[in-house]
């Protein structure tokens, strides 16, 4: 039944490859636990105490609460699927409660540091240097996700209209505006980019193949290392940076939500915490009674 559930995620829910892989990993781990602990080979035959026992074992292993909550979410989705398909009559996940987690503020790079990156960082004069700059400018200038950057195709870059068409989670389409300076950079990049057979992907590797996650992550880390001391130097940090800088400069929260491709406003509101923290610091530094 797990295979049927994964197919449902792929073809009906149109979940991302990353999401499907996460569910598959969680359910495989759970299935192995049931077999070892209870000699139960089929998760659809598991009861509520068995599910609770697995969660407790994860806590005893020292797994962090957010990771455990993700596994609980995987179980809920799977047993919800089984119930809709009438393979079970009672949902055993009803007794599971999400663990309390500390809310982390999104890490972001300061504006001055981003200015330093694009004004002072040394990008080589060859195609690779130009491509690296395009990657960083796109991530910071549009806030797109890593997977969205990798999937971005040349026909979806509108140089005249100064927009890119992005396909986000569950293939949800959105149009993101692009600055005139980034458009000029993209024109230069496309002129130098050699035609590659069998792919329309915008970003390619040094050898002309389609980019992949680790390739992009290495490039981002390489350049961010020179301008920030943040422990996390990833493409997603540039997405957080994009949203935070927009908000700090007065952008409407609903507009940021649409630009980021969030399904609801709650996901975007986390960026307001960074703005509030900045206001607190300003108050402490400037007010006589602070």
UniProtKB/TrEMBL annotation:
It is found in: Cytoplasm. Gene3D superfamilies: 1.10.150.130, Intergrase catalytic core. Residues 104-284 form the Tyr recombinase domain. Transmembrane segments: none annotated. Keywords: Cell cycle, Cell division, Chromosome partition, Cytoplasm, DNA integration, DNA recombination, DNA-binding. Residues 1-83 form the Core-binding (CB) domain. Forms a cyclic heterotetrameric complex composed of two molecules of XerC and two molecules of XerD. Site-specific tyrosine recombinase, which acts by catalyzing the cutting and rejoining of the recombining DNA molecules. The XerC-XerD complex is essential to convert dimers of the bacterial chromosome into monomers to permit their segregation at cell division. It also contributes to the segregational stability of plasmids. This is Tyrosine recombinase XerC. It comes from Dyadobacter arcticus. The gene is xerC.
């Amino acid at each position: 039944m797990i295979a049927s559930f994964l197919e449902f995620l792929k073809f009906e829910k149109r979940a991302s490859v990353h999401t499907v892989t996460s569910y598959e990993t969680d359910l495989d781990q759970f299935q192995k636990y049931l077999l070892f602990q209870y000699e139960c080979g089929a998760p659809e035959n598991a009861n509520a105490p068995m599910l609770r026992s697995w969660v407790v074992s994860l806590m005893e292993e020292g797994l962090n609460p957010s990771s455990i909550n993700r596994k609980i979410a995987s179980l809920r989705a799977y047993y919800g699927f089984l119930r809709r398909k009438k393979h079970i009559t009672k949902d055993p996940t009803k007794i599971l409660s999400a663990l309390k987690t500390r809310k982390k503020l999104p890490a972001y790079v300061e504006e001055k540091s981003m200015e330093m990156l694009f004004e002072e960082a040394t990008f080589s004069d060859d195609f690779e240097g130009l491509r690296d700059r395009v990657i960083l400018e796109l991530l910071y200038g549009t806030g797109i996700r890593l997977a969205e950057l990798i999937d971005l195709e040349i026909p979806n870059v509108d140089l005249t209209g100064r927009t890119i068409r992005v396909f986000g989670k569950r293939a949800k389409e959105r149009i993101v505006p692009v600055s005139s300076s980034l458009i000029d950079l993209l024109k230069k990049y496309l002129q130098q980019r050699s035609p590659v057979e069998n792919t329309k992907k915008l970003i390619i590797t040094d050898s002309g193949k389609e980019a992949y996650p680790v390739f992009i992550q290495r490039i981002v880390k390489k350049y961010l290392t020179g301008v920030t001391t943040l422990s996390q130097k990833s493409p997603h940090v540039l997405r957080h940076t994009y949203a935070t800088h927009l908000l700090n400069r007065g952008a409407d929260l609903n507009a940021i939500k649409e630009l980021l491709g969030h399904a609801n406003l709650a996901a975007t509101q986390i960026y307001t915490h960074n703005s509030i923290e900045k206001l607190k610091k300003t108050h402490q530094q400037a007010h006589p009674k602070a």
